[in-house]
Amino acid sequence: MDDDIDSLLGHLPLAALILDTQQDRIAWANRAAAQLLTLSRPSGARFSTLLGRALPKFIVFADEVAHRGQAWARDIPLSDARDQPLTVELRATPLPGRPGHLLLTLLDLRELDLRAEAAEAAQTFRSGLMEWKHAQAFFADLERQNQLILNAAGEGIYGVNAEGKTTFLNRAAQEMLGWTAADLLGRDIHSVIHHHHLNGDHYPAHDCPIYRSFRFEQIHRIEDEVFWRKDGRPIRVEYVSTPIYDHKVLAGAVVIFRDITERYENERRLREALDQVDALRDRLEQENAYLQEAITSERAHHDIIGGSGATRQVLTRIALVAPTDAPVMITGEAGTGKALVATAIHKDSPRQRRPLIAFKCSAHAPDMIEAELFGQMRSHQLGTQRDRPGKLELAHGGTLFLDDLAEMPLELQGRLLHALQTAQVTRLGDLRARPLDIRAIAALTRPPEVEIDAGRLRDDLALFLNVFPIQCRPLRDRPEDIPPLTDHLLGLACKRMNRPCPLVSTRTMQRLLAYDWPGNVRELGNVIERAVILSTGHDKLVLDMGEEAAPLPATGRAVLTEAEVQAMARANILNALRETRGKVAGAGGAAILLGIPATTLYSRMAKLAIREAEWTVPGG
After folding, report:
1. Rounded Cα distance, 413 and 407, in Å
2. Which CATH architecture has domain 3-117?
3. CATH topology for 123-259?
4. Do 608 and 569 meet the contact criterion of CB atoms below 8 Å apart?
5. Closest CA relative to residue 329, chosen from 316, 311, 341, 313
């Protein structure tokens, strides 16, 4: 370096050096830096040898300087030439006109603490007129010589003499404060930029840590105060105020400050955001509890209804498989309640507190199933603006219900099988596999072997999922379930429409029993809901099945089975009990309506296991 810059930096109170990052060498260092680092010939020394294992941290620090134009750090450990550890604060900024060169200042924190302790014991004295003039000349000379370096620094720097008059300030200080050098030089800077606290209280100069620095030879670090700009706006700052000596004579103080307004505002917003998050979390927890209660209540209305042998078998198999994690394959025609069985398995499983994610393969276009099931990363090529998890990820820890599995393309079935077997899922456009912990339940409308023969289902996937098969029988194969299902669906429809529950006559029940029900329970629910609408103003259910269900032709049988007769008899007794509001014997009782003795009616009720809850009209 040339002699002028060497003299210029030599007077800087902080340890400073110029680092050539491309050559990993110290291009120049002032005396304070050479003493701190114990380098007899600092110029040309390799800086990386002082960093040791902290070199990666310093590289990140240098990248930050290149990106932001300035940076500081206290978490990069250094060692001196004798391999003694140093505790320093690094500040760096690019050197104008010298690519790859950084102006690096090192603040020895331990030395500052020792000096602060020593300064507290020093005697206080005032500089006389001659000292003040000498200090003024000293700072004026320092301002002229160090202007290049001071203006390159990212922090605001200004100096005051022993009388509190401003002697110099760098460009960063002028930009942050809005005052020019002409505005402040020679003036009491405290009365200009530090006169009031943020709350409006007056800030006396004798209470200012900056003035105590040169009056009591103390170093002060202040984390949060305000300086006042020329336009009257406050800025939050953190600063270090350090005494300055000229030939061991106290000449004043230098202040290095940083604008933390944006950081403080970001911290305030973060605290507010966290408070909002806490409030939203509490609200969501309350809403979740409410929704869980509502869901539980709703599921209570959709439990599996029926007492037929086929229904009891399904309930038994649910009870057997629910506590396990075994894959389940549910088969049955549309409308037989496959989704209801899947829900019952999940509800009774150890995974009940985690979600049941249902994915209906037939409801998505083939080219969309992959993204919906596996998720995808943000990609311009895929036209996605954000990362999105798939159904497999959403079901993590819970249950995945794959309805209409045979509608999934075969190549995706292979990828699904791989994800289930390896317990990992990879999103589209991503290379990272994510852990997967799910219980798989699949549903088919036809038996697996039929779908495999038709080329719609991979045999290896069917083998993996068909560990525990459950078959949902069609409604036509279990007519004894029609009366209780009718009562259940009728109660739900009337409650939903806020209407009184009409009676189901024997003739109406016979029509329901005689129909073949190709749409199964779903079709029965539609018929009952339509009948409730048509029964407005009527005591009995008005059934309208159009041309679908004339008496008995659906099965072509003129004779009912014993189970059908029993179901009809049971429904008839329930209708009589509803009409009499549960009265069995005596005038106006159900026995009189049925034309049988009360003792006979009691006997039949016991035989058919008729309970009081069954004839109680919902809402009645």
Report:
1. 10
2. 2-Layer Sandwich (3.30)
3. Beta-Lactamase (3.30.450)
4. yes
5. 341
Tell me the whole-structure pTM to 2 decimals: 0.46
Distance CA 620, CA 617 (A): 5
CA neighbor of 210 nearest in space, from 225, 231, 200, 228: 225
Which residues in the chain show pLDDT less than 70?
1-10, 119-136, 138-153, 214, 278-303, 379-385, 546-560, 562, 616-620
Instruction: Classify the phi-psi angles of 423: left when phi > 0, otherwise alpha if psi is within -120 to 50, otherwise beta.
Output: left
Domain coordinates in residue numbering, the chain: 3-117, 123-259, 303-473, 476-615
Helix (H, G, I), strand (E, B) or coil at 178: coil
Integer Cα distance of 562 and 97 in angstroms? 103
Domain 476-615 has CATH 1.10.8.60: yes
For 28-76, give the DSSP string: EE-HHHHHHHT-SS-TT--THHHHGGGHHHHHHHHHHHHHHS-EEES--
Tell me what pLDDT residue 292 has.
55
Structure confidence at residue 142 (pLDDT): 59
The rounded distance, in Å, linking the Cα atoms of 167 and 158 is 7
User: Pairing between strand 328-331 and 468-471?
Assistant: parallel
Tokens 């394959």, located at residue: 329
Tokens of 51: 């960093």
Domains 3-117 and 123-259 share a fold: yes
Residue 554 to residues 162, 525, 529, Cα–Cα distance (Å): 111, 18, 21
Topology at the third CATH level for domain 303-473:
Rossmann fold (3.40.50)
Among 502, 467, 506, smallest CA distance to 483 is for 506
